[in-house]
Write a structure and sequence with these properties.
heterodimer, B: alpha/beta, 11 helices
């Protein structure tokens, strides 16, 4: 992905998971998604996501005569609502797939590049109300 | 050097064979396609369960393909790949090991025999001592006397039940109030140190993961090492068998395998046992063509690959909010609820064409972050995103717990579900890939829905909310059987009652392939038990 495509991806990811304290970016979610689309597990979705992001920009142009990245947050949300509720099944499939990738980027084991510093886990309570996935085994090893 | 026995695969089929035959003093070689993972390699990484890359081959190099009613061309799939490593699927199983009910062996007699639905050539009584042996050998924890629906048993489980989440008491009470008969889920996991292996550490990553401490009774931990310790069993990992060889007299002479450096080797043996799991054992037979066996080894009657089954599984769950149930011990953190109930193993008349229901297995929905996040985003019909998703993710684990259940139920063998060789797709070495044809009889959805409803009623009785089925009439990725069914009629089966191929006197298929029908309960214990049974027979024949 080029710089503009990456910026678009980051902007969409930020609207899919808008968190205080810039947590989504700090967890590395968009970076995870970009890398995953080049990788063995999700590489097959690359075209779907690229086309979907083009569509997102297209809707922003139609409605606001601006790139998605130049729209205000509320405008961006309005664009994404249209995508999420699109009649076209393949558009909704794009939205679902991207949301799925965002969740991985936020909550996967950090060894895969996302969930940096376990930001996602802590956000959901893993480490306080829930044990972290590796807590039990770390106990055994010490 | 000619071995007594070569075994292809080291999972639920290969493990009992290796242990029994090497104990009998026979010279055994196990050829396992996958690697032997050290315990430290079993990291608690959810992505391994969700995406399976760690446990199964790279599909760009070693695919299966699948066609269904909705597809025209076959597509690459992980379906039918269970686990390619020393220990096979038993490495990452949830270790819920149940016996079949006596009626599971007699589906033809009970529900009308067809070409697809037949009796086993023996009954529960013949399998019983082998069930007991398998339970002792892998190390099982449970209290069988609490399940009134089980067939007779000659031995109790060797270990008492695992510890359970305190909520299991409430669930047991709810079941009993509804006139059901809950019992502790029998687990192939040490509740106490056993055979030199430690007791369970109660981590939260059991099902789908290899056991980091060695408490799970996998073939890798419980069977293979003891086979090797006899001095008569050699295991070669990363050795992929590509062909079974047959001599001019029609007897198997051994096999060809490819090692980790892509070098080919030939091994000679008096007896060859295929334990590569249903899809791959069938594929190996089909790819072992010769002048005598132009349609694949032991496939003169065309039955190799037919009657494939992927065990029926259905799921449901409900939510228990902390503030609504101060009386329930919801804040306890324990991975296992381990409550099972066999009360709905049979359906009332009139619900489905076949009056078979399923086995209910309750559990906490373990707090695994990614799965929880997906539940929050996708679990309510409409995708949650944006602020909605953010808020829900933050609240979810802090507000309560989810409790659910799995239903194991029959996969009816049918004409539309079988394995053959893909005419276009090969693996990276040029061997045709296994092509899975999948068709699901209506009964699966009907039985799944009915038993899921009963499960949801129990959760409702406990006061759970957001009750919902999550899968109805689904098929398991890990529980695969059929393809070389066992029978007394050589025109209608691949194997005789001892898992010996009808056509090749020293060739056996000893994994899940032999199963004529799937049983209601999950098949793993039955595969282990049958393998012990067949192994003892082979040992006595070779003496």
């Amino acid at each position: 992905m080029n710089t503009q495509e990456n910026k678009l991806l980051e902007a969409v990811v930020e609207r899919l998971l808008p968190l205080d304290d810039d947590l989504t970016r700090r967890a590395g979610v968009a970076a995870y998604v970009a890398a995953a689309l080049e990788g063995p597990i999700h590489g097959g979705n690359r075209t779907l996501i690229e086309r979907g992001l083009d569509l997102v920009d297209g809707v922003a142009e139609d409605d606001y005569e601006r790139n998605f990245t130049d729209c205000a947050a509320a405008e961006q949300d309005a664009v994404l609502e249209q995508i999420a509720d699109a009649e076209d099944r393949s558009v909704r499939h794009f939205f679902q797939t991207l949301t799925s990738l965002v969740l991985e980027g936020f909550l996967c084991d950090p060894s895969h590049g996302g969930n940096r510093d376990e930001i996602g886990w802590r956000f959901m309570g893993f480490g306080d109300s829930e044990p972290r996935p590796s807590d039990c085994l770390e106990e055994i090893e010490t | 050097m000619k071995r007594d026995v070569v075994i292809v695969g080291s999972g639920a089929g290969g493990g009992p064979l290796a242990l029994t035959l090497s104990r009998a003093g026979l010279d055994v070689l196990v050829l396992e396609k996958g690697p032997r993972h050290p315990r430290e390699a079993y990291r608690p990484d959810e992505m391994r369960v969700q995406h399976r890359q760690f446990y199964i081959p790279d599909l760009t190099r070693d695919p299966h393909t699948v066609v269904t009613r909705k597809t025209t061309e076959s597509v690459r799939t992980h379906l039918g790949w269970i686990s390619t490593c020393v220990g096979g699927g038993t490495v990452h199983m949830g270790a819920y090991l149940y016996r079949f009910h006596p009626d599971d062996f007699r589906m033809g007699t009970l529900y009308g025999e067809t070409e697809e639905l037949v009796d086993w050539p023996f009954g529960y009584e013949e399998m019983e001592p082998w069930y007991s042996m398998a339970e002792q050998e892998v190390g099982m924890s449970g209290r069988a006397e609490l399940n009134p629906f089980e067939g007779p048993r000659s031995q109790p489980y060797p270990l008492p039940p695992l510890d359970r989440h305190p909520l299991s008491e409430n669930l047991d009470a709810a079941c009993r109030d509804l006139n059901l008969h809950p019992y502790p889920t029998p687990r192939a996991i040490n509740s106490r140190p056993y055979q030199g292996r430690p007791a369970c550490a109660y981590c939260f990553q059991c099902a789908g993961h290899g056991c980091r401490v060695g408490a799970k009774g996998s073939s890798q931990e419980a069977l293979i090492p003891r086979a090797e310790a006899t001095g008569h069993c050699e295991v070669r990992a990363e050795c992929s068998v590509t062909e079974v060889l047959v001599g001019p007299d029609g007897w198997a002479t051994g096999c060809v395998y490819r090692d980790a450096d892509d070098q080919e080797h030939e091994v000679e043996a008096r007896v060859v046992c295929l334990s590569a799991s249903s899809v791959e054992s069938a594929r190996l037979l089909l790819n072992s063509k010769s002048a005598r066996f132009p349609d694949g080894l032991a496939n003169g009657n065309g039955h190799v690959g037919r009657h494939l089954q992927f065990h029926g599984v259905s799921y449901g769950q409900g939510r228990l909010a902390y503030d609504r149930h101060p009386d329930l011990p919801l804040r306890a953190r324990h991975p296992f609820l381990d409550v099972s109930a066999m009360d709905h193993y049979f359906l009332p008349e009139g619900v489905s064409e076949i009056a078979k229901g399923g086995l209910l297995r309750f559990d906490v929905i373990t707090a695994n972050p990614l799965a929880m996040g997906q539940e929050v985003a996708f679990g309510s019909g409409k995708i949650r995103w944006g602020r909605d998703l953010a808020d829900a993710l933050q609240r979810h684990c802090r507000e309560g717990v989810s409790v659910g259940f799995e239903v194991f139920h029959d996969f009816l063998p049918n004409e539309g579900t079988f394995v053959d060789l893909d005419p276009k797709t090969t693996d990276a070495w040029g061997a045709p890939a296994a092509r899975i044809h999948l068709d699901l009889p209506e009964h699966h959805g009907i039985a799944g829905r009915w038993v899921v409803q009963r499960g949801l009623e129990i959760l409702d009785f406990m006061g759970a909310e957001d009750l919902k089925p999550t899968t109805l009439g689904g098929t398991s990725a890990y529980l695969v059987h059929g393809t070389c069914r066992m029978g007394t009629d050589p025109d209608a089966s691949v194997l005789d009652p001892w898992c010996r191929t009808h056509e090749v006197p020293n060739l056996y298929v000893v994994d899940g392939s032999f199963m004529p029908t799937s049983g209601g309960a999950a098949p793993t214990l039955t595969i282990l038990a049958n393998s012990f049974r067949v192994a003892h027979h082979i040992a006595s024949e070779l003496d």
